């Protein structure tokens, strides 16, 4: 299968689009610039010969690779990826660089910054691969344009090689996944797949059907600003109260101290003045019971300091975002079994692990579309050390092609 050059060019073309989403926006998609790539994908899908290609008023792009003759009655499966990049770091003016036959050593990104094996030991796995890295000033966009490129490359290959038997395959591209709104208006019934796979994972072989239960929390502290020379027993410094709230949360339950199934509280924003301050948290846990316990603990901490500083001083708003997809996927073991077989046939050993995050697939699973997550070959998402392996991306395409065939057997 000789599609690596096509895959590489497609990926580099997609990362040139600035598709950063915006959590403060009240529109959908949250940024109009995401539509530039989404509309480009529509044009490309039509040019490849896909059918039922459309972009709906919310920016969702869908299309079909028609079933090969004799496979029309096979289950309809889908492949889904998101086009937006994280608001955590600049996503414009990306200048990717290829490293062919990576030697396994530290990688200079620019004159003052290197990606060191000491800091990222998983780099050793990719020795001999062709890597695509950043210039150290932006993210790369492999999350999830690697997935978009892999799905499109697989679809193009199937359309060009009708001798590969497969049922009807639905393709979907979504905006705003990075800010938790990716499937807010996704029409599962119209999409029409029985099962689907998000192509949004990382390390080679990752197969994920467990994810965090997730909530956002916003705390607002109303202080009392008094001239500091005359503030004794009068001032309430909102910034200090915010710090006090954070100190009540267990330090060992921060992202930098957790792994595997361990949940966390993550302070993602703190701003304000003496008069008023606000804090933004994300709360995560794989266990629904521990997830609910974390939310109660946060509420108890706020209540404690509200009693200390006076009712009305502190307000807390918690919003659930998504839940662990495992209970929605496990009743359909063939979804996982076929994915594992597809990987092995592509020369990849499956690595079943919980997602320490979330994907559109988690919410889609609760919307009636069981949707585990497949690897893409992207690593170190959301920052300047993001990179991807072109070799692993190729194996992701082969996995998608194998799945298409396996579901038709």
Describe this structure in words.
Zn(2+) 1 binds at residues 82, 143, 200. β5 (107-108) and β6 (114-115) form a beta hairpin. With 409 residues, the chain is of the alpha+beta class. The radius of gyration is 23 Å and the shape is globular. 30% of the residues lie in helices and 21% in strands. The strands form four sheets. Strands 1-2-8-3-9-16-10-15 form an eight-stranded mixed sheet, covered by helices on one side. The chain has a four-stranded antiparallel sheet with strand order 4-7-18-17. Strands 12-13-11-14 form a four-stranded antiparallel sheet. The two termini are 21 Å apart.
Protein structure class? alpha+beta
| Radius of gyration over C-alpha positions, nearest whole angstrom | 23 Å
* Count of separate DSSP helical elements: 10
What is the residue-mean pLDDT, rounded to a whole number? 95
Order of helices and strands: HHEEEEEEEHEHEEEHEEHEHHEHEEEH
Most strands sheet: 8 strands, mixed
How many E strands? 18
* Strand arrangement, major sheet: 1-2-8-3-9-16-10-15
Helix fraction?
25-40%
Uncertain residue ranges: none
- In terms of DSSP E residues, the strand content is 15-25%
What does the overall shape look like? Answer: globular
Distance between termini? 21 Å
Protein name: Peptidase T
Enzyme class: hydrolase
Main location: cytoplasm
Pfam family, one: Peptidase_M20
């Amino acid at each position: 299968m000789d599609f690596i050059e096509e895959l590489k060019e497609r990926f580099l073309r997609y990362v040139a689009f600035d598709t950063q989403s915006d959590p403060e926006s009240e529109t959908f998609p949250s940024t109009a610039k995401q539509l530039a790539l989404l509309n480009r994908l529509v044009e490309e899908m039509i040019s490849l010969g896909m059918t039922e290609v459309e972009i709906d008023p919310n920016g969702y792009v869908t299309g079909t690779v028609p079933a090969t003759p004799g496979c029309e009655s096979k289950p309809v499966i889908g492949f889904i990826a998101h086009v937006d990049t994280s608001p955590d770091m600049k996503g414009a003016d990306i200048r990717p660089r290829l490293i062919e036959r990576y030697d396994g050593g530290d990688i200079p990104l620019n004159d003052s910054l290197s990606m060191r094996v000491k800091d990222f030991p998983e780099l050793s796995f990719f020795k001999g691969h062709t890597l695509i890295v950043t210039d150290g000033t932006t993210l790369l966009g492999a999350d999830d344009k690697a997935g978009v490129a892999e799905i499109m490359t697989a679809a193009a290959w199937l359309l060009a090689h009708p001798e590969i038997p497969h049922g009807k395959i639905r393709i979907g591209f979504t905006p705003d996944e990075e800010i938790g709104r990716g499937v807010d208006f996704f029409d599962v019934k119209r999409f029409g797949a029985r099962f689907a796979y998000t192509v949004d994972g990382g390390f080679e072989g990752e197969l994920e059907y467990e994810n965090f239960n997730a909530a956002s929390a916003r705390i607002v502290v109303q202080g009392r600003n008094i001239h500091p020379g005359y503030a004794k027993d009068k001032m309430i410094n909102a910034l200090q109260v915010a710090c006090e709230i954070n100190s009540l949360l267990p330090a060992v339950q921060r992202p930098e101290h957790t792994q595997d199934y361990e949940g966390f509280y993550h302070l993602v924003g703190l701003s304000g003045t003496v008069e008023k301050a606000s804090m933004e948290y994300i709360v995560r846990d794989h266990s629904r019971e521990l997830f609910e316990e974390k939310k109660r603990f946060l509420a108890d901490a706020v209540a404690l300091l509200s009693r200390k500083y006076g009712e009305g001083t502190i307000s807390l708003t918690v919003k659930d975002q998504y839940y662990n997809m495992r209970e929605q996927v496990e009743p359909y073991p063939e979804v996982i079994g076929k994915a594992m077989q597809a990987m092995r046939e592509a020369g990849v050993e499956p690595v079943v692990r919980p997602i320490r995050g979330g994907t559109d697939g988690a919410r889609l699973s609760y919307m009636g579309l069981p949707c585990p997550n497949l690897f893409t070959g992207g690593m170190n998402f959301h920052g300047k050390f993001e990179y991807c392996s072109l070799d692993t991306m190729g194996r992701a395409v082969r996995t998608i092609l194998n799945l298409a065939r396996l579901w038709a057997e």
